[in-house]
């Protein structure tokens, strides 16, 4: 399941230095020869390089998938209810028991809760059942040759050659996502090299067939991305009828004592980490679900860029650790795609940068909505409504 850049693609991009004028395009065979020369210059033998590229072919289906990757328009409640089925809950609990020793080790070494990785495992590959059927070597070389993001994918090809050298990658048979991600939690070759863990002790890191390898590697990856050991990531809260709604959102982190002074309180139990700061998340405005996002929540955005996906994955992680079903509240209805495009056009006419007029409630549109709500004296919760559309 992918929205915007695929999972872990952004993380890899953030940790890969930009390469000036990365070679791309031209004849595919000539491009492959250039990759071979670069691989040998990095110390790989001619036999290794020839063996890796022997079966590599350009894959037009990969390019088609890259160009049609979509961004969804479902609101958080609808999306979460679709993704978090009873079956996924039951299988998550079952896998938590089955791999209890692995999850205990992950918590000791990386400080990551089982729920976090179980949620990613569920959403990325349905607990390993759907890992993708694109030939990974073909996908990576095809996307490196394509001139849209060669600086991202060329290093992945070279990393895959190293995995091949280690006996952990078969260029003819290894398959995964269209963007080159491999295994149960979908990691790119460079990330596997840097964060791969032999969780089952067989001397190899095999993310497609070994759940301990995949889960341990995912835990180490999260730690690498900045996960703070033993800290929570999300907690559902109740909000008062009135407050300064402009403080909600991803841009404002406040001590929990300040949120509490404004009337924000845990929906059940106590604050999970009263000494930390948190951000008030209102995915459907002040009348809908409400959460406090702790610092670890930010790490999710280095795994995936989609706000709704990230919030759903984070929430599912809390559910798997025993949190109750969230209170959906009674939010104002979401605008349809046509209405959202009309709103974006009006916001742009008022001088706001909302990016492409695409009917999608992204960060730019939310910021513009909040600004106009403040200007018009409406509750500035960044949730677009028919009232705001009419006022504009």
TrEMBL record:
Occurrences of domain Transglycosylase SLT (ranges): 28-316
InterPro entries: Lysozyme-like_dom_sf (IPR023346), MltB-like (IPR043426), MltB_2 (IPR011970), Peptidoglycan-bd-like (IPR002477), PGBD-like_sf (IPR036365), PGBDSf (IPR036366), SLT_2 (IPR031304)
One MF term in the entry's GO annotations: peptidoglycan lytic transglycosylase activity
Domain of life: Bacteria
Residues annotated as signal peptide: 1-20
Alphabetic keyword roster: Signal
Residue stretches making up the Peptidoglycan binding-like domain: 339-391
Keyword Signal in annotation: yes
Name of the molecule in the record: Lytic murein transglycosylase
Species of provenance: Thalassovita mangrovi
């Amino acid at each position: 399941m992918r929205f915007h850049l695929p999972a872990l693609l952004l993380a890899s991009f953030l940790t890969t230095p930009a390469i000036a004028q990365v070679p791309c395009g031209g004849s595919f065979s000539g491009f492959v020869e250039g990759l071979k020369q670069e691989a040998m210059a990095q110390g790989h033998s001619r036999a290794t390089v020839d063996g890796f590229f022997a079966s590599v072919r350009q894959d037009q289906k990969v390019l088609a998938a890259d160009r049609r990757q979509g961004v969804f328009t479902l609101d958080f409640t609808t999306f979460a209810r679709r993704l978090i089925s009873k079956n996924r809950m039951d299988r998550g609990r079952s896998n938590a028991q089955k791999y209890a020793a692995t999850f205990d080790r992950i918590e000791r070494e990386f400080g990551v809760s089982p729920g976090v990785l179980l949620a990613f495992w569920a959403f990325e590959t349905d607990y390993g059942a759907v890992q993708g059927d694109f030939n990974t070597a073909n996908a990576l070389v095809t996307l490196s040759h394509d001139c849209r993001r060669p600086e991202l994918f060329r290093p992945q090809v070279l990393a895959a050659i190293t995995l091949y050298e280690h006996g952990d990658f078969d260029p003819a048979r290894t398959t995964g996502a269209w963007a080159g991600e491999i295994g149960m939690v979908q990691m790119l070759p460079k990330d596997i090299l840097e964060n791969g863990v032999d969780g089952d002790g067989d001397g190899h890191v095999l993310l497609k067939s070994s759940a301990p390898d995949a889960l341990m590697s995912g835990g180490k990856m999260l730690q690498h991305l900045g996960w703070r050991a033993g800290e929570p990531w999300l907690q559902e809260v109740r909000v008062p009828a009135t407050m300064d709604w402009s403080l909600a959102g991803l841009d404002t982190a406040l001590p929990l004592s300040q949120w509490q002074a404004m009337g924000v309180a845990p929906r059940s139990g106590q604050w999970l980490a009263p000494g930390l700061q948190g951000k008030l998340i209102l995915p459907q405005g002040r009348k809908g679900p409400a959460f406090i996002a702790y610092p670890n929540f930010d790490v999710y955005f280095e795994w995936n860029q989609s706000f709704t996906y990230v919030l759903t994955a984070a929430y599912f992680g809390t559910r798997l650790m025993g949190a109750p079903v969230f209170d959906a509240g009674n939010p104002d209805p979401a605008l349809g795609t046509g209405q959202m495009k009309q709103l974006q056009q009006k916001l742009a006419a008022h001088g706001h940068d909302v990016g492409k007029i695409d009917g999608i409630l992204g960060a730019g549109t939310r910021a513009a909505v909040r600004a106009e709500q403040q200007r018009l004296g409406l509750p500035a919760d960044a949730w677009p409504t028919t009232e705001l559309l009419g006022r504009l």
